[in-house]
Amino acid sequence: MTVQQLLDALEEKTTSKKTLRRKRRCIYTALLLTTGTCMYFFTPPIVSDVKISDMKMIGNEVWFEVSFKKTWPCAFVDLTWYDENHKRKMLSFEDRDKNLPKSRPTGWQAAGPWKIAGMTTHELTHHSYAIARHTCIYLFTIETLFYHRESPIYFR
What we know:
This protein is of the alpha+beta class. The chain folds into 2 domains: about 40 residues; about 100 residues, Immunoglobulin-like (Sandwich). Helix content is about 30%, strand content about 40%. The strands form 2 sheets. Strands 1-2-6-5 form a 4-stranded antiparallel beta sheet. Strands 4-3-7-8 form a 4-stranded antiparallel beta sheet. The chain is elongated, with a radius of gyration of 22 Å. About 15% of the residues are buried.
């Protein structure tokens, strides 16, 4: 039975418009929650194939550029970088163009320079990881392992 058939059957059996609206809301809520749950557990990562390039040390900060592939048109929430001891590091986006949108379109992207304080280039590339959070459906925030030297395909 399709959603439209279900809604048509409700209209035939319901006499009150108020009751019909309530039943429709219940059906739409169930569909949204089901779709969101399936998307959360069964989608590939929002971003993948992250490459770090053009690293340089300036004082105690690592400046670097990144390239990555965005596979889903989800809204960017934040990106958090951690060291090997799972301590959060201060990441600053120093993109040259301040007019760039916060969320990027799907496809291959290049970004930077970014900077992280309190790490060396070796620690950044070999002993750290980053988690990106995106909102794809208003109720769900999806976390993706953005960067790790030996990154698995999925991270939830």
